[in-house]
Amino acid sequence: MQSTSKTRLITALKFALPAAIIGYLVWRIEPEQWHQLSAQPKQYGLLVAALVVSIFAMMLSFARWCLLVRCQGIELTMLEAQRLGSICFLLSFVSVGSVGGDLFKAIFLAKRRPGKRVAAVASVLVDRGCGMYGLLLLVAGGLMLNPGAAASNSDASAAVADGSFGMEQIKWATAILIGLGTVVLAILILGGRGVDRLITWGSGLPAIGKLVATIGPPLRMFHHHPIAFAVSVIMSLGVQGSLVISMYLVAKGLYTSPPALADHFIIVPIGMLASTLPITPAGIGVLEAAIDQLYKIVPAVPTNASGTLVALVFEMVKVVMAIIGTIFYWTASEEVRESIEEAEEVEEVEMAH
Q1: H-helix or E-strand containing 77?
Q2: Which of 217, 256, 287, 299 reaches 20 to 30 Å from 124, CA-CA?
Q3: Membrane spanning segments where (predicted)?
Q4: For residue 279, which phi and psi values (nearest 5 degrees)?
Q5: What does the alpha-carbon distance between residue 242 and residue 106 come to, in Å, rounded to a whole number?
Q6: What does the buried/exposed string (b/e) look like for 41-56 if buried means 16 or more CB atoms within 10 Å of the residue's CB?
């Protein structure tokens, strides 16, 4: 009885926390911003288009995961990938950070192929890594398309000057992370027998040998599928680029003069990266704070648009998308339900500690 009450309390908290964060974000919006938004002519067609583009991005991301799973020798149909991915998207709204659904993916694949447990985890990790790499590439592309972002504001107020300094930090951080990511991918995917020998050598180390021996071979599996992996990176660009366009459409639907599309190719990927930090369910609150700050420091031409409001409406678009996951959740098979329950038990244990 006590265990049941505790489970119900944890479940209630999972759903209450996102609602409380959204309520706080709405409360802290300035009255002037509400007045400005209400005075703007809304373009509801653009808001609907933002939803359609986001759904396309979501489906493309599930297709990418399916491709990476097959590279690990695990059977998964495209229809299953779309159904499971939709459920994962729903679960991310009641898990800390935006990675909660990944746990369910790994558990489901491990239950389906017990001998491929590590490979299942590897597919999820690589899928997440591809998404992150795609975000970084978009930031770099946005900086090249819009090299003067924030530069023209150097003679403005001190706050804007601080924004210019922030842009320099963004440029350096992006270059470093892309460099590191490229090196790691090149070693794992393109490396030959030398890398395999390095993994064999690392497997014999006293402290990390067992970990290297367990994770190394599944990650190296993508060495045999370089074309498929390259396609997955291209798909990541398509996913993240679609999400950028979706948020830009939200901004255009709410405001007549929001930051330009080129600015959003810098703003949105960085905001998405921030939202992956395990701080709040689905990154709610973190995304809004990041977008609001980036709206102030990225555009070369200052904007009156509220990054918080734009990000909040974008979150509402994601909630509508999660409804699709709810439908699949209600109609899930016994195998899927068992995996969901196991993932919830693991999360409860982690929260208890």
Answers
A1: none
A2: 287
A3: 44-67, 87-110, 130-151, 172-192, 227-251, 266-287, 308-330
A4: -115, -50
A5: 26
A6: eeeeeebebbbebbbb
